[in-house]
Structure formats: C-alpha cells, structure tokens
Amino acid sequence: MLQGCFTAIVTPMLVDGSIDYNSLTNFVEWQINSGIDGLVVNGSTGEAASLSLHEKLNLIQTVIKLNQRRVQIIVGSGTISTHETLEFIQKLNQIDGIDYLMCLTPYYVKPTQEGLYQHFAQVAMISRFPIILYNVPARTACDLADDTTLRLANDYSNIVAIKDATGEIARCSYLLAHKPKDFILLSGDDETALAYLLLGGSGLISVASNLRPKLFSQLTKAALNGDYLTAKKLNLQLIDLSKVCFCESNPIPVKWALWFEQHLTTAHLRLPLIDLAPEYHEKIKQILAQVKE
Questions:
Q1: Residue 104: enclosing H or E segment and its boundaries?
Q2: What are the backbone angles phi and psi of residue 40, rounded to the nearest 5°?
Q3: What is the DSSP code string of 106-133?
Q4: Phi, psi for residue 111 in degrees, rounded to 5
Q5: Alpha-carbon distance 188 to 180, whole Å?
Q6: pLDDT by residue (tens digit) across 242-285?
Q7: β-pairing, 100-104 with 131-135?
C-alpha cells in the first residue's frame, strides 16, 4: 500500500562531484532505521537533472541493494521530453526492486493539457511499474490540471497516484471528491502536508524528512490514524524546519544541514547549484538545535 512518509533522498557527493557511495550507504540505513516508509531515488532533491544516465542507473541499483526490500522504492523517471522519458523507463523496466515510478511533468517546454495527457498515456503503456504522477509547477513551469489527472487516473489502471507539490490544499479536496476509488493522493509539500493528510491524503513525499525522518514518520502516522493532537504538536515542532529547507533552491539547504550534522561527508552540489549562502547558516543551526529526535 502506498501510504506513509517517503523521503525524497539527496544524492551525496564528494568534492570532485562524484557520488559518495559510502555516505549514501550510511544515510539509507539511517532513514530506514528511523521508520520511514519508503525512499524516493533520482528525484529533484537527488539532483537528478545533473546526473548522467549511467550515474542514475547505478544510484538506483545501489539503493535497491541497500534496501533489501525493507521499504518501498520510488524512482524518479520524468525528463524534459516524452522520447527521453520512454527510453529511460525502458531501462528501468529491466531493474528488479522498484515499487513505483514517479514521473515528473516535462519541464521548460510548457506542453498543453492534451500534450500532458498523451505524454503520460505513453508512459503508462510502456512502464512495467505503477506510476505516480508528479506535479510541481514551481519547478517545471508546467501545471498538470486536476481534470487531466482524473482523466489519466480513469483511463490507465497503472497510473495509481499523484504527488501534489503545489501547496494548494483545495486541489486535494477536488481530487478526493472526483478520483477513482483506489487512486492515491500524496502531498509533496512539507509545509501544508498535515492539512493535506487530514483532508484525505494517503501520505507525504518529503524533503525535510531527510533531516528528521523519525519525526516526519510519526507526524504522518498520527495524521493517518486520526490522532490530530499528536500530529498538530509534531507539525508545530517541525514547521520552521520545513520552511527553512527552501530558504534557497532545494536541495541546497538540506544538503548543507545534513553535512553540518555529519550525515554527509560534504555539502557539495553540482553547478549551477552552489553552496548555501553564509547568511542562512546560523538560522539553520538554530532550528536544527531546537528540533531533536
């Protein structure tokens, strides 16, 4: 069941820009031991746009091997074009240990809603894995309309969920009222996640859970179990952390925080992303000190 808290994990890197597999091993183990329900690999937080095809495939296979089927594995699979996305998915189809593909709307090109429908229809027809639609217009300049989502959910049984990172809570209510029975709604926005879950969402794909996986897992479980008081208390505890993770472009702040707390060897990112501006260092340190697991 696609339910609970899923961490959209960072991709640790060494100062030369190569993937730091030692840090990755320790990081994945910590996340799983902290009670997280799944890991999202090769997503926006994982700097997928800056990874080569070889690096992506090696990263995915490494995390699958480390996981040993303990939690669910969601793999980011969307690219800028339908052709490139289908080619990538054909390679993913050959890998065992993937539970879901998370497919981003094509970015930069600004397709129409009919173009988006046809794009995801092609994805659905080729993928051997169930598909999570991923709508994050703040990053892609492309908004997957609710009615297009519903059309896809009704037409393709293997399109099973949406990660909604718009932060627009009303959209959750609309989708909940009109979606097929088994279609799953996942929040992709940490700051509004509690409201989304209480309205009927089934889970959270989180950036900030990179830093506090146990607390975000507890928050999600409390909300899903109807324990509003516990969920509210945890949300108030975590809201500043959720917000500061986006003081600069994701994953700049979260990588710096993970490095500061010694979960990563470096805070290195690939250009055009650069290290966190010094003006944010103390603020993040203060929030981390206040939010302990």
A1: strand 100-104
A2: -100, 120
A3: PPSS---HHHHHHHHHHHHHH-SS-EEE
A4: -70, 160
A5: 20
A6: 999 999 999 999 999 999 999 999 999 999 999 999 999 999 99
A7: parallel
- What are the residue numbers of the active site? 134, 163
Tokens of 146: 């609710």
What H or E segment, with its residue span, contains residue 137?
helix 137-140
Predicted confidence (pLDDT) per residue in 147-196, tens digit: 999 999 999 999 999 999 999 999 999 999 999 999 999 999 999 999 99
Structure tokens at 183: 């279609």
**How many residues are there in the chain?**
293
Place of tokens 């690999």: 41
Distance (Å, rounded) from C-alpha 42 to C-alpha 56?
7
Judged on CB neighbours under 10 Å (0-12, 13-18, 19+), 280 is middle
158: which residues sit within 8 A by CB, 6+ positions away?
Answer: 124, 127, 129, 130, 131
The model carries a pTM of 0.97
| Phi-psi map region of 202: left, alpha, beta (phi>0 left; psi -120 to 50 alpha) | alpha
Q: Is residue 1 predicted with pLDDT exceeding 90?
A: no
- In DSSP notation, 60-102 reads HHHHHHHHTTSSEEEEE---SSHHHHHHHHHHHTT-TT--EEE
C-beta of residue 108 within 8 angstroms of C-beta of residue 81: no
Give pLDDT tens digits for 69-109: 999 999 999 999 999 999 999 999 999 999 999 999 999 99
Taking CB atoms within 8 Å and a gap of at least 24, the contacts of 69-73 are 69/97, 70/32, 71/32, 71/36, 71/37, 71/38, 71/39, 72/2, 72/6, 72/37, 72/38, 72/39, 72/99, 72/100, 73/38, 73/39, 73/41, 73/97, 73/98, 73/99, 73/100
In this prediction, residue 292 carries a pLDDT of 87
